[in-house]
């Protein structure tokens, strides 16, 4: 397969491309810079620039482009960038797909667990309703833009990605290594999580499954709270995790991002992904922590 990837330099995009190459496929990477080789293609999503003829030779599109939500604090200007970077990228890809005579067979487009908002202890399947908040509105608008593609559309609702590299854990692990980390807020909020390897494997699996369409929660089958995730990481590092950061301190320090990213509770299920026959390499928190720290 020739698989076009936006956001190819990001954490997930890099791993998807690596795994595709390992499987004998040909990733084609979209770049805003001058292409360095034949596997890169220029585009400018903020201006809607992408040659539609490219799609004639593409089997699948993976859309992962978007400004990181990990840049904190979120200013009003940066929140607009978080939105526009996703909507513009998706719209540019969809327009190119729809303009092609021979269209790619599938668009796998990014979304986020934020779609559900803060839901306490409620189990969240793909049929659960949209929540409220900035990230919920963003995820819903992002998905609606992707649905306009005249091909099979898969929406991957991604959450905390457990990675050996930087990413969501990039700022947390160094603190835990010093032995001064701990739960955030009450620690009872549910943090859906998935290993980076399984995240990319799931995306490729959904590309190859012709019956897969609509939203999929990309989350491991074992649920865990914030406190459980942090204690598991601390145990793997052989460090204590006694210190707790109160919710009001987090809200004061990083504002709305604290509520939307770290203090909200999302107990997502992976039943729909499992029903496609997908098998996790790291289905438990213990195995995922071992993968991260190996």
Ends distance: 31 Å
Shape: globular
* Main sheet specs: 7 strands, parallel
Please tell me how large the radius of gyration is.
Answer: 19 Å
Kindly report the spatial arrangement of strands forming the biggest sheet: 3-2-1-4-5-7-10
Low-confidence stretches: none
Q: Could you name the CATH topology? A: Rossmann fold
Strand content: 15-25%
How many beta-strand runs? 11
- Domains counted in the coordinates: how many? 1
The CATH level-2 architecture is identified as 3-Layer(aba) Sandwich
Helix residue percentage: 25-40%
Alpha-beta classification: alpha/beta
What's the overall average pLDDT, rounded? 95
CATH class division? Alpha Beta
- The CATH superfamily name is NAD(P)-binding Rossmann-like Domain
**Secondary-structure element pattern, one letter each:** EHEEEHEEHEEHEHEHHHEHH
Helices, by number, come to 10
Describe this structure in words.
The protein has 294 residues and is of the alpha/beta class. It has one domain (2-163, 192-221, 268-281): 3-Layer(aba) Sandwich (Rossmann fold), CATH 3.40.50. It is 37% helix and 16% strand. The protein is built from 10 helices and 11 strands. The chain has helices at 11-22, 76-99, 134-146, 172-177, 196-208, 226-237, 247-254, 256-263, 271-275, 285-293, and strands spanning 2-6, 26-31, 40-42, 60-63, 106-112, 123-124, 152-158, 160-162, 193-195, 214-218, 267-268. The strands form 3 sheets. A 7-stranded parallel sheet has the order 3-2-1-4-5-7-10, with helices on both faces. A two-stranded parallel ribbon has the order 6-11. Strand 8, helix 4 and strand 9 (193-195) form a beta-alpha-beta unit. Helix 1 packs across helix 5 (196-208) and helix 6 (226-237) packs across helix 10 (285-293). The radius of gyration is 19 Å and the shape is globular. The protein starts with a strand and ends with a helix. The model has no long low-confidence stretch (mean pLDDT 95).
């Amino acid at each position: 397969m020739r698989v076009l990837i936006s956001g190819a330099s990001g954490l997930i995009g890099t791993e998807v491309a690596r795994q595709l190459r390992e499987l004998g496929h040909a990733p084609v990477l979209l770049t805003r810079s001058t292409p360095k080789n034949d596997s890169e293609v220029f585009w400018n999503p903020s201006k809607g620039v992408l040659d539609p003829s490219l799609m004639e030779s593409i089997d699948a599109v993976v859309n992962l482009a978007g400004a990181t939500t990990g840049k904190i604090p979120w200013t009003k200007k940066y929140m607009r960038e978080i939105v526009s970077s996703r909507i513009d990228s998706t719209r540019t890809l969809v327009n190119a797909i729809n303009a092609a005579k021979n269209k790619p067979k599938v668009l796998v487009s990014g979304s986020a667990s934020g779609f559900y908002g803060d839901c306490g202890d409620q189990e969240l399947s793909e049929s659960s309703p949209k929540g409220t908040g900035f990230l919920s509105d963003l995820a819903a608008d992002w998905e609606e833009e992707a649905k306009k593609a005249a091909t099979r559309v898969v929406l991957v609702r991604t959450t905390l990605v457990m990675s050996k590299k930087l990413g969501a854990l990039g700022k947390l692990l160094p603190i835990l290594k010093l032995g001064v980390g701990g739960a955030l807020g009450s620690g009872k909020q549910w943090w859906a999580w998935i290993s980076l390897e399984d995240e990319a494997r799931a995306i490729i699996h959904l590309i190859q499954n012709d019956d897969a369409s609509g939203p999929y929660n990309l989350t491991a089958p074992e649920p865990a709270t914030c406190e459980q995730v942090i204690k598991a990481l601390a145990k793997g590092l052989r460090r204590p995790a006694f210190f707790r950061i109160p919710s009001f301190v987090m809200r004061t320090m990083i504002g709305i991002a604290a509520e939307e990213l770290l203090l909200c509770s999302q107990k997502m299920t992976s039943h729909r992904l499992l029903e496609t026959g997908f098998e996790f390499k790291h289905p438990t928190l213990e195995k995922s922590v071992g993968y991260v720290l190996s």
